[in-house]
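During the first year of the project, the team set up a workflow for recording each protein of interest as an amino acid sequence followed immediately by a discrete structure-token representation. This format lets reviewers and collaborators read both layers of information side by side without switching files. As required by the reporting guidelines, we include two representative entries from the current panel. The first entry is reproduced here exactly as it appears in our internal archive.
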Amino acid sequence: MPDELRRMLRREAVLEITGHHPKTFERLVAQGLLPAPIKIGPRAVAWPEDEIVAWQVRKIAERDAAQNAKREERERAARERAEREARRVEYETNRAEPHRERRNT
């Protein structure tokens, strides 16, 4: 006998939690992108709640990772623009300074 009982969710409850349209939900289950149901009776299936929660946590982590990657890319691009601008200003400054030095000598 298992050490702990697992709460089982019926299809309507899982649809409400995931927010998917029923057809999309079935397609995602068939593709293995959502947990597969467990047969709990001759004509009834359910999903372990902890598997649905794990799916939610995974999706949130994927979103957060994508947002972090986009933010890091924007920051990297901004740093590169700033470095290019600093090099351009330094080049323009160095280019103008030798002319001033020649006049003074």
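The second entry, processed by the same pipeline in the following quarter, appears below.
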Amino acid sequence: MGEGLAIAAGRRAGVKPPRQDASVWPHSRRHLDWDGCFDVRDLGELRADEGRETRWGALVRADALDGLTAAGWARCGHGVRTVIELREPGERGEDAAPPPRWM
């Protein structure tokens, strides 16, 4: 499957960055565990224009939502409101489980 699926999430109250632990690889604290999707990350605290940073819970990036299982869709409650598909039409596979109605 191709890469390049972006998920834009709305501002969600209470989404805070995970606690930092020096023994954990720095990028692993961004990882979100959504069954059937192997590369889901919260893009909080990335640098933006004029010294600003993205908020935790404002933007999520994923590899391929068509692999999400029913349990994965249930975990997708990270405040996601909009899905932006960046893959070519031929790169998208058949859904492993039906996506929620809001999608």
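For the second entry, the following points were noted during internal review. Helices lie at 70-75. The beta strands are 5-9, 41-42, 59-62, 80-85. Both points are flagged for discussion at the upcoming steering committee meeting.
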